[in-house]
Specification:
By secondary structure, this protein is an alpha/beta fold. It folds into two domains: about 200 residues, 3-Layer(aba) Sandwich (Rossmann fold), CATH 3.40.50; about 90 residues, UDP-galactose 4-epimerase, domain 1 (Alpha-Beta Complex), CATH 3.90.25.10. About 40% of the residues lie in helices and about 15% in strands. The strands form four sheets. It has a seven-stranded parallel β-sheet with strand order 3-2-1-4-5-6-11, with helices on both faces. The chain has a two-stranded parallel ribbon with strand order 7-10. It has a two-stranded parallel sheet with strand order 8-13. Helix 1 links the parallel strand 1 and strand 2. The protein is globular and about 55 Å long. It binds nicotinamide-adenine-dinucleotide and uridine-5'-diphosphate (UDP). The site of uridine-5'-diphosphate has 14 residues, from helix 5 and strand 8. Nicotinamide-adenine-dinucleotide (NAD) binds next to helix 1, helix 3 and strand 5.
Length: about 300
């Protein structure tokens, strides 16, 4: 098949392009390089089935494609808050453009949604039928509400126009090719630990997250895309939950670092807890994560060690 991956030069997108090429597909990687980079996909450039298109999804585009993975959107809070209006445009206009394309060329489309649609959840762990607790006017709203509207658009194009859709709600994912300076907790803590700098825990570190290794996420996304008769939304994530303070200690142990933990102010609307209920993915896809956190973190630490050796 010919498969379009928007946001294909980003962290998750580059892993997805790589897996799709390995499966024998032609891959069109579309990106505006806001948070992605050519380095993430350099190793794919020599493959004649790989094509790179510099384009912004807030503008329409016409392409021939059988499937669309719509991942284009900054994912780290500092990046999506840098230009919040652009973030909403990317989620809303980008999804409209990709849905319009899917409708026109009769492509199946998968939208990368997020656990952020649950906001600061009052139900724990979060099942797909929980509607969430999202602040519509806070500093995270440009991302959370943009992604919620994107889900609405997916469902309405499906009901109104019969577009073949899949919605995946991705929980915190980590692995090689996360951007060094994107401010997310995994990259921040690992880079700080490797450089011997203070580990910056926001708040008292009692807030929780559940981290999924990127290979497991990609496997779940591909199964959802391939399975007939499912639309989602479906959670894909690793239910192993940890507090951020425990997580800092774990990174210090795994890196053998002499860094110490320091506490910084908690950003507003930072969710207190987050853990996916993956019953639906287990039952409908036979999917569950297989990478334990220490194994995944070691691979990620190796990646950042190599990167820092190269870049200093
Ligand atoms: P990322 O920032 O590494 O990748 C996003 C990619 O989209 C980048 O390559 C960026 O340049 C590109 N992009 C941004 N705006 C664009 C635009 N207007 N037009 C074209 N390209 C644009 O982030 P990621 O972690 O790889 O996330 C990929 C997707 O998965 C995002 O949609 C994100 O919301 C979603 N997601 C990620 C996580 C996670 O933990 N990583 C969790 C939930 C959801
Ligand atoms: N966090 C932290 N120190 C950092 C970066 C993040 O304590 O240097 C915290 C952040 O406040 C949040 C959690 O780690 O509670 C996860 O943050 P991230 O930005 O990775 O993802 P999200 O909040 O979107 O889940």
């Amino acid at each position: 098949m010919r498969i379009l991956v928007t946001g294909g030069a980003g962290f998750i997108g580059s892993h997805l392009c790589e897996r799709l090429l390995k499966q024998g597909h032609d891959v069109l990687c579309l990106d505006n390089f806001f948070t992605g980079s050519k380095e993430n996909i350099t190793h794919l450039m020599d493959d004649h089935r790989f094509e790179l298109i510099r384009h912004d999804v807030t503008q329409p585009i016409l392409l021939e494609t059988d499937r669309i993975f719509n991942l284009a959107c900054p994912a780290s809070p500092i990046h999506y808050q840098y230009n919040p209006v652009k973030t909403i445009k990317t989620s809303v206009m980008g999804t409209i453009h990709m849905l319009g394309l899917a409708k026109r060329v009769k492509a199946r489309i998968l939208q990368a949604s997020t656990s952020e649609v649950y906001g600061d959840p009052l139900v724990h762990p979060q099942p797909e039928d929980y509607w969430g607790n999202v602040n519509p006017v806070g500093i995270r709203s440009c991302y959370d509400e943009g992604k919620r509207v994107a889900e609405t658009l997916m469902m309405d194009y499906h009901r109104q126009n019969g577009v073949d859709i899949r919605i995946v709600r991705i929980f915190n994912t980590y692995g090689p090719r996360m951007a060094q300076h994107d401010g997310r907790v995994v990259s921040n803590f690992i880079v700080q630990a490797l450089k011997g700098e203070d580990i910056t825990v926001y708040g008292d570190g009692s807030q929780t997250r559940s981290f999924c290794y990127v290979d497991d996420l990609i496997e779940g996304m591909l199964r959802l895309m391939d399975r007939e008769g499912l639309t989602g939304p479906m959670n894909i994530g690793n239910p192993a939950e940890t507090s951020i303070l425990e997580f800092a200690t774990r990174i210090i142990d795994l890196t053998g670092s002499s860094s110490r933990v320091v506490f910084k102010p908690l950003p507003s609307d930072d969710p207190r807890q987050r853990q996916p209920d993956i019953t639906m993915a287990r039952e409908k896809l036979g999917w569950a994560p297989v990478t334990d956190i220490d194994t995944g973190l070691r691979k990620t630490i190796d990646y950042f060690t190599r990167l820092l050796t190269r870049t200093g």
